[in-house]
Amino acid sequence: MLRLLDRLEEVLIATLIAVATVLVFITVTHRFAIGLAADLVGSSRLVEMPALADLARSMFKIFNALKMTWAQEACIYLFVWRARFGAACGVRTGVHVRADILAERLIQAQAEAIAKSAPADLTGYTRVKQELVAPPFAPVHDQVATGGPKIVEVHLETQQRLMTVDGDTGAEIWALSYNGSVRGPQTNAHEGDHVEVTLRNPTDGVFEPDIDFHASSGALGGGGLTHVFPGKEAVPLRKATKPGVLTCHCVPGGEMIPCHICHGMNGTMKLQPGDGLKHGQGNPLRHGEIAHIGRQDYSMPMNEEGSHKT
């Protein structure tokens, strides 16, 4: 008997959610139709199309005659009762009531697609280890790709360090960084290369970083694949697909995204075409030593005596 009542409770909750959702959809569509008909009346008058104006006016009268003022109050009652039964169900089962059918289906479909997909064929790719340097300098790299596509190996370590931002006042901030520099180092590759980033979080790390390369697509540019706990590392392989000088940064999720970026966890990737840079007229463009310069601002609170807080 209790099992039957539990099942009835679940069916009732699902019914309340479904009815409220359908009702909200109908009322929104109703308001949109009234507004569209009214706009169509005015537009048809401006272009002197009386037949269209008459049709739009008739539509407006039909939709306006369907009084839906009761729908909002009905939805409130439906959600109140859904919340009451949902709370009882949550206490009984120890979970929150949620509508996750679509999300679960999408996650399942994605997992099945990944399982069925063939692994990337990297035959013929040459591995090249790129030694990163602190900004504003850039690592040594070929301006024109030679010898076919490559797998560019890059090593990054997340570091938290106390950094002096103003030598005159001694103002300091706990900076979050890649390889100890703010901004982070620049990575260089050619369009079509694969970039293999080894992201390591030292054992004394106190947060869970990752890295999102805007030059790559999917999984937040790899950010969704590189969450690393202290003492761990992740080694994702990204295909560089978007030429340009693009940013990379930490995307831990939620409100922590701007916190990590603004505290220094950002950098750049210079991804250029395989045949090198060109002038606007299409002529080859070669350069000497390059520098990448970015601005990093810090807003720091002050103590009562006027000194900055760390």
Explain what the structure shows.
It is a single chain. It contains five helices and ten strands, in the order ααααβββββββββαβ. The chain folds into two domains: 114 residues; 147 residues, Cupredoxins -  blue copper proteins (Immunoglobulin-like), CATH 2.60.40. The model has no long low-confidence stretch (mean pLDDT 82). The strands form two sheets. Strands 1, 2, 3, 5, 7 and 8 form a six-stranded mixed beta sheet that branches. 35% of the residues lie in helices and 20% in strands. α1 runs antiparallel to α3. β2 and β3 form a beta hairpin. The longest helix is centred in the first third of the chain and has 45 residues. The chain is of the alpha/beta class and 310 residues long.
* Main sheet properties: 6 strands, mixed
Order of helices and strands: HHHHEEEEEEEEEHE
Question: How many strands?
Answer: 10
CATH overall fold name of the largest domain: Immunoglobulin-like
Strand content: 15-25%
Low-confidence stretches: none
Q: How helical, in percent, are the residues?
A: 25-40%
Question: Can you name the CATH architecture of the largest domain?
Answer: Sandwich
Number of helices: 5
Number of domains: 2
Distance between the termini: 63 Å
Radius of gyration: 29 Å
CATH superfamily of the largest domain: Cupredoxins -  blue copper proteins
Structural class: alpha/beta
- How would you classify the quaternary structure? single chain
Shape: extended
Q: Average pLDDT across residues?
A: 82
The first-level CATH class name of the largest domain = Mainly Beta
